[in-house]
Design a protein that fits this description.
The chain has 75 residues and is an alpha+beta fold. It has three helices and two strands; from the N terminus they run βαααβ. The chain has a two-stranded antiparallel ribbon with strand order 1-2. Helix 2 crosses helix 3. It is elongated, with a radius of gyration of 13 Å.
Length: 75
């Protein structure tokens, strides 16, 4: 299977800022549950640390966009 994911930095926070999963895990979330679940998990992590004490950051919430296509045609 060939797939592609496009993520804003807000959507990739689960991996690159919070370290709650690795890139393989993030792609598994997208594959198994879709973009809405990824964003739900990002928001849950943000909400659990509104003051940025566990994960220092400039703002509590960032815009989060995720697109996932799992059935690409082979060229």
């Amino acid at each position: 299977m060939t797939a592609a994911a496009l993520l804003s930095d807000g959507a990739s926070r689960l991996t690159d800022r919070f370290g709650l999963t690795d890139w393989t895990g993030l792609l598994s979330i997208l594959h198994d549950y879709g973009p809405a679940e990824l964003i739900r998990r990002v928001r849950a992590a943000e909400d659990s640390d509104l003051q940025g004490e566990r994960w220092p950051r400039g703002k509590a919430h960032d815009d989060a966009t995720a697109a996932y296509c799992r059935q690409l045609l082979d060229a």
